[in-house]
Write a structure and sequence with these properties.
The protein has a single domain, classed as 4-Layer Sandwich (Metallo-beta-lactamase, Chain A), CATH 3.60.15. It is about 35% helix and about 20% strand. The protein contains 9 helices and 12 strands. A 7-stranded mixed β-sheet has the order 1-2-3-4-5-6-7. A 5-stranded mixed β-sheet has the order 8-9-10-11-12.
Length: about 325
Amino acid sequence: MKACVLALLVLFTGSVGAFAQSGGAAPHVATAKKAAGQDHLALFNNICSPPPKPQPQQAAQGGGQPQADPPREKWYAPPVKVFDNLYYVGMTEYSAWAVTTSAGIIVIDPLYEYSVEEEVVNGLTKLGMDPKQIRYVVVSHAHRDHVGGAALLQERFGARVVMSAADWDWLASDPGRWPKAKRDVVATDGYKLTLGDATLTLHLTPGHTPGTISTVIPLRDGANRHTAILWGGTGFNWRSGSPRYIQPNTPATYWYANYEKSARKMRDVAKQVGADVVLSNHPQYDQSTRKLALMPKRTAGQPHPYVIGRESVDRFLTVAEECATAGPLW
């Protein structure tokens, strides 16, 4: 009898604990859902859900035998002019951006090593630009899908590769068997990258990786001027339980806290600079898949698909902040 009572008590206590955790997350999830509206649902759906049960890690992330590169038809996307000084040179699921200046080109996130030539090098050529004019490569974070192509641009064109110190270290410790860029420019918080008539401001926003960078980009659209925030990293990668993330001194709460702080910081930055455009390094989060298709059809005077307004930019970053706050409370 005592054993049955004890079992019921344990079951009841566990249920209360689960309910309390759900209740703790609920207000933040509700705030994030309201902020998402209809335009930021992809972000909300990706990061505002209960964490999956961590799976045992069979091998270190990125290790093992290299897999065959996927065929071109699975990932190729044509290059598109987005603003007078900004071009999309990314893949179907991974974004790369080219900022043009009076003194050369800045590439942001040079994709995988297997796609950088077709998308970035040949993409710029198709757009009527010379890839030899690539002067800088800014890497938002040191995951292969965003940094893998940096080595080629560094070696072939002498482009300077820019990354945070923490992510240079992250790259150096990655066991993946793909070419790594040599350590080069180290970006600090608020780093001003000036090339010709353009200045990009790089902000350290750790969370997705230890040294993720989010970038403020000035944009031109004819006589109109706009400002973009490129949110440097989106997913809660530590939820997999990967030992690359989860260590005694960096538990899941560490990553959630950093992500939350970074999102709140970029909300403040966005307000200060009057950002009215959100960009991502994955096309689903800034709706690039839909918006890129509209660009060739846009006529003079029509609203720009990427200009979403300051209020919408703030809502995007609110989703990121509130979902990170909710994360440890489920």
